């Protein structure tokens, strides 16, 4: 519809009025939803349900008018997105970043490699405005479930202790543990798997 | 009889305290504030500032010159443009118990949304209501603009 903008058709007064109407309709006085690719290019899906029916958005910058006909999608220009959503996008916090720290088997002792990663995590915490972190402990499947539940908590707590200085507000630190229930590498029971003996630290 | 009453009362109180605890759970934190923005809870309204916690039922508001960005515990990101009102209706993030839910209402204005773990684990548990329709999130990122009713 907006393609006529640059054509000579806009010279005719009647066409110009139509064009203005079209611009007006797709401009500010509208409720609509736009699907957007992420910065890394990945694209999800959004399902929009109004009294008129349901519309699925599957392509980048595909949009649907919330007051319009269901199933009728349109492509929104970068310019329009900037105009309507520039401020909201600019206020978007940085995406959270996760780090994995690994442990010696059956212990809450960090491996030497993971110990060396700590300064990078501290730098990330300091860099972000009003950072909060979550620390989730895991084990591999060696030993029984009960033991691993407490071991994974012990791991999480020992990592939390490392960050108390940089994160003095305990309200901004969440400590949790999943025992052997949330394996990074799927294994049978009683399997020694270094990649599963981990604590995930997420910095937000 | 009195004993039964006391037991019932204790039970009622314990249920109540569980509820109170659940409601006072921190869901996320304000990370970015520009211009005028506020958070309204039952107890009243406070100006938004980075580091302020967000709770269930909170109404996030920006003025004509305001913007606000929040990061939730499941890594969901929501940021509001100017003249916007967003209410957090429901939020449950306990993956170990498979309790996952995120429901918000965009009453007016503009929203930028990037989904987190809840949408990844249970896409059907995420929805954003607007006066004219409901947005079901099947992953990642969208924008919504809503006229007030």
CATH superfamily of the largest domain in chain A: OmpA-like domain
Instruction: Write down the Rg of chain B.
Output: 17 Å
Unreliable segments of 5+ consecutive residues of chain A: 1-28
Cα(first) to Cα(last) distance of chain A is: 42 Å
Oligomer: heterodimer
Keyphrases for this structure?
heterodimer; A: about 200 residues; alpha+beta; 60s Ribosomal Protein L30, Chain: A; 3 domains; 4-stranded mixed sheet; 3-stranded antiparallel sheet; 4 helices; 9 strands; disordered N terminus; B: about 150 residues; 12-stranded mixed sheet; 12 strands; about 50% strand
How do you describe this structure in short?
With 204 residues, chain A is α+β, with helices and mostly antiparallel strands. Chain A has helices at residues 13-26, 78-90, 112-127, 145-162, and strands at 32-36, 46-50, 53-57, 62-65, 73-75, 97-102, 133-137, 173-177, 198-203.
Fold and architecture overview:
The complex is a heterodimer of chains A (204) and B (149). Chain A is 30% helix and 22% strand. Chain A is α+β, with helices and mostly antiparallel strands and 204 residues long. Chain A folds into three domains: 1-30, no CATH class; 31-92, no CATH class; 97-203, 2-Layer Sandwich (60s Ribosomal Protein L30, Chain: A). Chain A has a four-stranded mixed β-sheet. The radius of gyration of chain A is 26 Å and the shape is elongated. With 149 residues, chain B is α+β, with helices and mostly antiparallel strands. Chain B has one domain. In chain B, strands 1, 2, 3, 4, 5, 6, 7, 8, 9, 10, 11 and 12 form a twelve-stranded mixed β-sheet that branches. The longest helix of chain B has 22 residues, at 2-23. Chain B starts with a helix and ends with a strand. Residues 13-23 of chain B have low confidence and may be disordered. Classes of the chains: A alpha+beta (204), B alpha+beta (149).
């Amino acid at each position: 519809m907006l393609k006529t903008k640059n054509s000579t058709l806009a010279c005719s007064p009647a066409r110009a009025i139509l064009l203005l109407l079209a611009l007006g309709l797709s401009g500010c006085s509208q409720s609509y939803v736009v699907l957007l690719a992420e910065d890394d290019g990945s694209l999800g899906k959004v399902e929009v349900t109004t009294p008129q029916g349901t519309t699925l958005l599957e392509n980048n910058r595909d949009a649907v008018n919330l007051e319009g006909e269901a199933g009728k999608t349109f492509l929104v220009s970068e310019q329009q997105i900037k105009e309507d959503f520039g401020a909201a996008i600019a206020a978007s916090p940085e995406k959270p970043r996760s780090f994995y720290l690994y442990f010696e088997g059956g212990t809450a002792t960090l491996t030497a490699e993971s110990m060396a990663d700590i300064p990078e995590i501290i730098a990330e915490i300091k860099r972000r405005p009003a950072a909060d972190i979550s620390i989730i402990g895991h084990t591999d499947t060696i030993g029984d479930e009960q033991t691993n539940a407490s071991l994974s908590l012990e791991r999480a707590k020992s990592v939390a202790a490392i960050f108390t200085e940089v994160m003095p507000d305990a309200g901004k630190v969440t400590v949790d543990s999943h025992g052997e229930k949330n394996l990074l590498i799927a294994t049978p029971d009683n399997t020694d798997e270094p990649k599963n003996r981990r604590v995930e630290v997420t910095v937000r | 009889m009195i004993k039964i009453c006391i037991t019932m009362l204790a039970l009622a109180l314990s249920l109540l305290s569980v509820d109170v605890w659940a409601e006072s759970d921190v869901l996320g934190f304000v990370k970015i504030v520009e211009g005028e923005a506020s958070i309204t809870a039952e107890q009243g309204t406070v100006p938004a500032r980075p580091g302020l916690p967000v709770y269930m039922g909170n109404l996030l508001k920006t003025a004509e010159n305001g913007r606000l960005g929040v990061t939730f515990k499941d890594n969901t990101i929501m940021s509001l443009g100017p003249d916007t009102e967003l209410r957090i209706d429901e939020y449950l993030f306990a993956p170990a118990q498979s309790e996952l839910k995120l429901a918000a209402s965009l009453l007016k204005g503009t929203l930028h949304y990037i989904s987190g773990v809840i949408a990844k684990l249970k896409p059907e548990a995420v929805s954003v209501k607007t006066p004219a329709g409901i947005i079901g999130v099947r992953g990642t990122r969208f924008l919504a603009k809503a006229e007030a009713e």
